[in-house]
Amino acid sequence: MNAQTAILTKDITPLATSAEGGDYDKVRRVIEKISLDYRDQPSLETLAEAVGETPTGLQKLFTRWAGLSPKAFLQAVTLDHARRLLAEGMPLLEASLEVGMSGPGRLHDLFVTHEAMSPGEHKSRGEGLVIRYGWHISPFGRALVMVTDRGLAGLSFNDPGEDRAAFADMSGRWPNATYVEDMAATAPYAARIFDPARWRRDEPLRVVLIGTDFQVRVWEALLKIPLGCARTYSSIAEEIGKPSASRAVGAAVGANPVSFVVPCHRALGKSGALTGYHWGLTRKRAILGWEAGKAA
DNA sequence: CCAGCATCTCTAG
DNA sequence: CTAGAGATGCTGG
């Protein structure tokens, strides 16, 4: 990525959730190391040294972040575990028909109501749309949040110093929209999305899906996947009635503009492998591990 | 029309 | 076990 551009936005709120946000940088490096050297099961000591922490310090930091110890996390992102997520998910595929709502075992999930933009609105590539945006600290690094008066329209992640590229990536999806930096408008969304204590069924998060017909169907299928479960690209293809379109599903999942909320990280290859992630495979692992901590 | 994909399956070694 | 090829459906230009 072209990270040559310097800091573009003012630095924001060192208060509030900055502890969590600052944690992610170390957590990310630990996860990178774990996934690189997972074959020889790196010890807590080795991991701690790599990020300049004491073993107990890392233990506490990591557990605070994930709800899991580094060792449990390592367990949680292996192929075996991913396969289990897929297996557990299967029965629910047919059972729950409601969109993004309810069902047993979803007590800790983020509840969402969504609407799709009409194909016409999508084709105009954001023409006439006012999008307010702002950056916020999240458990997975800096998050760029984009909202319209109809709800959350975009959410992406980036590492420090890459704000400019992140904005270009997002705004390029709706090039004809009008963009207004407005942290006051986006902050409440960020605060709710990343704080499980505020995930409430009676106050669902409003999301507006801007995409083609096919993409919206795929994203709706993602919204039905419960926290702590996963689906394969091919099972999603079957679910939307296009059993041979698994590859097209992959493309549509990858085009999802509302990361995390539309849980594209819960889509895996049939082998259980984490095949790809627009915002980096490390982040996909991080989110799945973090969710494993919440699902427990 | 064509190239590019976050797929999958099958075959051959 | 891996590597490669072919079938595949949607998207943007």
TrEMBL record:
GO terms for MF: DNA-binding transcription factor activity; methylated-DNA-[protein]-cysteine S-methyltransferase activity; sequence-specific DNA binding
Keyword terms: DNA damage, DNA repair, Methyltransferase, Transcription, Transcription regulation, Transferase
Pfam annotation, one family: DNA_binding_1
Gene Ontology terms describing biological process: DNA repair; methylation
Domain HTH araC/xylS-type: 28-125
Keyword Chloroplast: no
NCBIfam families cross-referenced by the UniProt entry: ogt
Protein name: methylated-DNA--[protein]-cysteine S-methyltransferase
Organism annotation: Mesorhizobium australicum
